[in-house]
Specification:
By secondary structure, the chain is mainly beta. The protein is 10% helix and 44% strand. It contains 2 helices and 12 strands; from the N terminus they run H-H-E-E-E-E-E-E-E-E-E-E-E-E. It is elongated. It starts with a helix and ends with a strand.
């Protein structure tokens, strides 16, 4: 029993102390450790303004906001290994999706790629044409959506992320 306790105490004394979760990363901290919990969602936000539909269709805008110093891959992405920015909507309550229009990309060269890549930076408006069926009930309807993004800086790309969004549509 005493020998087991001594071995246990020796093991505890020889282990590295756990790093503090909020402690700043230092140059000695490997990049993989510093970025272990970082995903694309740390650098990208999205917002949706409510829309009113009084005819057959209306255009809604999902505004993707990319933090300064970062970019997201355009739709379509430049290479198959890059995750394109993608908005996925579910039709519901007499509403359907006519089309999704992504903005024109910016072509930029980054240190991690041999060629220019198609990206979005800053505020990115993604347009969605919504259509109402003639029998759609009046009132507010919520369309569920998912926004898939992969954010990168000038050195590396972060794990892709998915945001859950709701587009409020009032049918008059």
């Amino acid at each position: 029993m005493i020998s087991c306790t001594c071995v246990l105490l020796g093991m505890i004394a020889c282990t590295k102390p756990a790093s503090q979760p909020n402690a700043p990363a230092t140059a000695a901290t490997p990049a993989a450790t510093r970025n272990a919990a970082v995903t694309s969602l740390n650098f990208v936000k999205a917002s949706v303004a409510p829309v009113q539909l009084s005819g057959e269709s209306v255009e809604a805008t999902v505004t993707v906001k990319v933090q300064s110093g970062y970019h997201v891959n355009a739709n379509p992405a430049s290479d198959s290994y890059l995750k394109a920015t993608e908005l996925i909507l579910q039709a519901a309550d007499g509403l359907s999706i006519g089309f999704i229009k992504y903005p024109s990309a910016i072509n930029k060269k980054f240190s991690f790629s041999d060629k220019q890549l198609a990206v979005y930076e800053g505020e990115v408006p993604v347009k969605v044409m919504l259509k109402a069926a003639p029998a759609a009930s009046k009132g507010t309807h919520n369309l569920n959506a998912k926004l898939n993004v992969q954010a990168c800086d000038d050195q590396l790309c972060y794990p892709p992320g998915t945001m859950e969004l709701t587009i409020p549509v009032e049918i008059k």
